[in-house]
Design a protein that fits this description.
It is a single chain. The protein is of the alpha/beta class. The protein has a single domain, classed as NADP-dependent oxidoreductase domain (TIM Barrel, Alpha-Beta Barrel), CATH 3.20.20.100. Helix content is 40%, strand content 14%. It contains eleven helices and twelve strands. Strands 11-10-9-8-7-6-3-12 form an eight-stranded parallel β-sheet, with helices on one face. A two-stranded antiparallel ribbon has the order 1-2. β4 and β5 form a beta hairpin. It is globular and about 55 Å long.
Length: 315
């Protein structure tokens, strides 16, 4: 496993981050990952050298954090970079906004479930248009000053909202967001948002790096293979011509380098040039996890990287 600096911070993280949104999550009557399997996935990720783990107060109705905390109890906490989130939770009465009261309640809940004294990275899960941004940023700044959080982060917001938050932190002399978590993959690119990240030296940790399974190449037009995320979640599979074009390019490169399309799609993200990019991948089985980790052994030439870029840019 190779490591990279997390944006402008001094923290070294594995080039892939293990996402745990599937821990204790049930969709369409199917439990995606039970406790035993969750611990097996964490074991295998750590054995491979992975140290960056992403969760949230809402994942698995809070059980994702609990299971990670149980797993960490037998390990050196300092060896791992743990990220969690506040707001947009369906399981807490303190999830309604990013007010001082709610943030303070949520951080204590996450720390208790994870059985840790601090979080390395703390995301706001969504932008809150109702609470004054200064109140939110002042409260988050307080968590850093108290040692409960090391770095602040932002997930799922518009470029102008991220810019406004960074400006507010700068003007008020507060800790700023250092890490972001947009939906970003070879076939879906929030260009304006990524430009802000590149300009400000923010780390980008994309969720859905395979487009919900689309970039695995297992989907036919309008249909998802059995067991894929789109199949389990009953997603609308109305993909654009551009997305199919990118998938064709990913599959072509995969054939050239003797790798799976998923591995190429993950490697393409890791190789981003304008900013540090650490994809957050999920896995329901150890086999899926190992297949994704193998992306780090794939090497893309400049021509292959640009072939995927050009497929997206083509008119």
């Amino acid at each position: 496993m190779e490591y990279t600096k997390l944006g402008s911070t001094g923290v070294d993280v594995s080039q892939l981050c293990l996402g745990t949104s599937n821990f204790n999550r049930e969709r369409s009557g199917v439990l995606e990952t039970d406790r035993e399997t969750a611990h097996e996935l964490l074991d295998r990720f750590a054995t491979a050298g992975g140290n960056f783990i992403d969760t949230a107060n809402t994942y698995g109705s809070g059980e994702s954090e609990v299971w990670i905390g149980e797993w960490l109890a037998d390990r050196d906490r300092e060896d791992y970079v743990i990220a969690s989130k506040v707001y947009w939770s369906q399981v807490s009465r303190f999830s309604g906004n990013l007010s001082r009261k709610n943030i303070r309640a949520e951080i204590e809940g996450s720390l208790e479930r994870l059985d840790t004294d601090y979080l390395d990275v703390y995301y706001i899960h969504r932008f809150d248009e109702q609470t004054p941004l200064t109140e939110t940023m002042q409260t988050l700044d307080g968590l850093v000053r108290e040692g409960k959080v090391h770095y602040l982060a932002a997930s799922s917001m518009a470029a102008w909202q991220l810019t406004k938050a960074l400006w507010t932190s700068d003007v008020e002399g507060l800790e700023r967001f250092e890490v972001t978590q947009p939906r970003f993959n070879a076939a879906e690119r929030p260009t304006d948002y990524l430009d802000v990240c590149a300009d400000q030296g923010l780390a980008v940790c994309p969720y859905s790096p395979l487009g919900g399974g689309f970039l695995t190449g297992k989907y036919e037009a309008g249909e998802a293979a059995e067991g894929t995320r789109a199949d389990l979640h009953d997603w609308d599979l109305d993909f654009s011509e551009r997305q199919w074009r990118v998938l064709d390019a990913v599959q072509s490169v995969a054939e050239s380098v003797e790798a799976s399309p998923a591995q190429v799609a993950l490697r393409w993200l890791v190789d981003q040039r304008g900013f540090t990019c650490v994809p957050i991948f999920g896995a329901r089985t150890v086999e899926q996890l190992e297949d994704n980790l193998a992306a780090l052994h794939v090497s893309l030439s400049d021509e292959q990287f640009e072939r995927i870029d050009e497929a997206y840019a083509e008119a």
